[in-house]
Amino acid sequence: MTLWTSAEAAAATGGQTGDWVATGVSIDTRTIQPGDLFVALRDVRDGHEFVAQALEKGAAAALVSHVPDGVSPDRLLIVKDVLQGLEALGVAARARCKGRVAAITGSVGKTSTKEMLRTVLERQGKCHAAEASYNNHWGVPLTLARMPADTDYAIIEIGMSNPGEIAPLSRMVRPHVAMVTTVAAAHLASFDSLAGIATEKAAIIDGLEPGGVAVLNADIETSSILRDHADARAARQLLFGETAPDWTLRDVRLNGDVTVIRATGAGQDYLFKLSVAGRHFATNAVGVLAVVDALGADPVTAALDMALWVPPAGRGTRETIVIDEATDGESLALLDDSFNANPTSLTAALEVLAAAQPVDNVGRVVKGRRIAILGDMLELGGQEVQMHRDVATNAYLQELDLVHCVGPLMHHLWQALPDEQRGQWAQTASELAARTTGLVDCGDVVLVKGSKGSKVSLVVDAIRKLGHRRPLEE
């Protein structure tokens, strides 16, 4: 299916080009598909170095700012600036799309909520959503540039690291519905306070189309900042959460490996489940129903389809690691939450672990244990040491049997732990991964949680190598 003709792309970007047709847009020659338009962005390396390779792999053309050595200009779309060219494609794609568009931001849960919304909307129409966590200054225009013209529902994730980043991206997206999942202590290194983060998150409302809807978390302490911003922009508001008047989370039950949710909204009562445990997932699920309703889709059908969603890799996925196929019960449960961490998301993950049920009499230790392996929480600003140390007083942490720690910041937690809970500490994830056989045992439920930069995913990989993976539903 044609995504861009050369004439359309040239008109959008003001560039010069030959005659070609693109069926996709790519920024990476490692994953490029035949027919893609390759965008030669400058990052760690200059994308122009890979144009010849992209064309050899079947790219329809390449978006460039100059002609690379040895490349014919016939299959090039030449613009003054490649990123600005990609942004222009995104703006043009949004302009031609007649479907309904939702934008999502938040300190925690953006990607999981985006995928939850994708799961339910793709059963009600042609749905387009951001890949992975493509939510920054190039990820947002790339997602838009990839959007087919006949899309019914589009879901765009918008993130930030510094002040002033969200508003221009939201104006590019022009959403009909803008959702803020939550505001938490993330990226505090770039902000003076939680209120500053809330103000930046609220800027997603700035790009709303006339008559647009802001779907906002009513339970957080900075909710008033979000609501005031929506009032100032004359946006209609739908509030979600336990204290919300519009979409109310009435009850949450963590029942083994599922979450059972009772909620009300839009004059309806809802009873549905998620195929994963987590109170934070439940709150966002109710927010998703609010977004579905605001988009004009069917929230009742969406609630029924919610059980089909599972978290993306590294964001709370649960799996069974079978150590010995020949012996019944020789396995452990692994909660992989290794992609991101801050105090709010850590509390949510610890609640899930505290509610999990280990299995006794199957391992060397005999008693199954709840074990947390925690890596550094990054970008927390001047209070980062105290924030790590304070985890020792977390109510859910008290329910755990053992806590292993990774990194210089988590060393402060490790020192604050009581002797009976204090496991091993290592400066780096690779060091701890090398000790995996002594960290966990059959019958254990093991949470691995940390910021991506802490590289605790190496520990996840090491645990998986103790046996073989089996999806939980098996």
TrEMBL record:
It is an enzyme of class 6 (ligase). Residues 332-451 form the Mur ligase C-terminal domain. Residues 23-67 form the Mur ligase N-terminal catalytic domain. It catalyses: D-alanyl-D-alanine + UDP-N-acetyl-alpha-D-muramoyl-L-alanyl-gamma-D-glutamyl-meso-2,6-diaminopimelate + ATP = UDP-N-acetyl-alpha-D-muramoyl-L-alanyl-gamma-D-glutamyl-meso-2,6-diaminopimeloyl-D-alanyl-D-alanine + ADP + phosphate + H(+). One of its GO terms (biological process) is cell wall organization. ATP binds at residues 106-112. One of its GO terms (cellular component) is cytoplasm. Its main location: cytoplasm. It is found in: Cytoplasm. Pfam families: Mur_ligase, Mur_ligase_C, Mur_ligase_M. Pathway: Cell wall biogenesis; peptidoglycan biosynthesis. Transmembrane segments: none annotated. Its EC number is 6.3.2.10. GO terms for molecular function: ATP binding; UDP-N-acetylmuramoyl-tripeptide-D-alanyl-D-alanine ligase activity; UDP-N-acetylmuramoylalanyl-D-glutamyl-2,6-diaminopimelate-D-alanyl-D-alanine ligase activity. InterPro entries: Mur-like_cat_sf, Mur_ligase_C, Mur_ligase_C_dom_sf, Mur_ligase_cen, Mur_ligase_N, MurCDEF_CellWall_CoF430Synth, MurE/MurF_N, UDP-N-AcMur_synth. Keywords: ATP-binding, Cell cycle, Cell division, Cell shape, Cell wall biogenesis/degradation, Cytoplasm, Ligase, Nucleotide-binding, Peptidoglycan synthesis. Residues 104-292 form the Mur ligase central domain. It comes from the Bacteria. Belongs to the MurCDEF family. MurF subfamily. Involved in cell wall formation. Catalyzes the final step in the synthesis of UDP-N-acetylmuramoyl-pentapeptide, the precursor of murein. NCBIfam families: murF (TIGR01143). This is UDP-N-acetylmuramoyl-tripeptide--D-alanyl-D-alanine ligase. It comes from Yoonia sediminilitoris. The lineage of its organism: Bacteria, Pseudomonadati, Pseudomonadota, Alphaproteobacteria, Rhodobacterales.
